[in-house]
Amino acid sequence: MKALVIIPTYNERENLVELARQIFAQGLPTEILVVDDNSPDGTGQLADEMAAADPRVHVMHRPGKMGLGSAYCAGFRWALERDYEAVFEMDADFSHNPESLGHFLQELEGADLVLGSRYLHGVTVVNWPLSRLILSYAANVYSRVITGMPYKDLTGGYKCFRRHVLESVDLSRVKSDGYAFQIEMTFKVWRKGFRIREIPILFVDRRAGVSKMSKHIVREAAWMVWRLRLLDLVGAL
Fold first, then answer.
1. Are 24 and 106 in contact (CB under 8 A)?
2. SS3 label, residue 70
3. Which residues share a beta bridge with 117?
4. Angle at alpha carbon of residue 151, lines to 15 and 88, rounded to 5°
5. Cα–chain-centroid distance for residue 189?
6. Lowest CB count within 10 Å: 79, 121, 133, 206, which one?
7. Distance, C-alpha 204 to centroid of its chain
8. CB of 94 within 8 A of CB of 207?
9. How far apart are CA 228 and CA 216, in angstroms?
């Protein structure tokens, strides 16, 4: 199954080369799309150099920092214009282990969307401060209660979609970013009745660069779950 790994970047120069090396080391039929938001540290230029040297690497340049959700939606559209059958979301900071890619593709044989879960069997998060872990865990409990989705990790960003799932979602109506984007995409797929599976992943906090986590991201997610619930109730999802 030909797959595309979408990697949004903003100042991820320190991670990009090694991340691509580890992705391709899995020996899977995968290619990479780097969606760079004009990183000041030259991540976009580095991605161009990688693409020039390896046809499996592709680059999309955006004029500035436009948000995670819009980066993934742009990447989804790019993938749907080509012949990829599976599309991954992956962080650029090594919090998502490339060694799990094969497991995702195996599970996708019997599913339409596979979610990498940090909370499926206990807590599999390494190097997060306790306050960040409590916030993440509580956000997932809150999201499950409000939306009714049965999945343990709704805010995680390591996931793999089958092509027809992305084709079914009106990406022009996906407006959220960060945690909210992850919840919104999964909710839309779940309400359409697609098969969703969770698999355990080991999440390790970034080893280089700076986190993009902010209070705005948390507030957006807190509101988004109510918005999704209300839109669903009135048939306007």
1. no
2. helix
3. 200
4. 35
5. 14
6. 121
7. 15
8. yes
9. 18
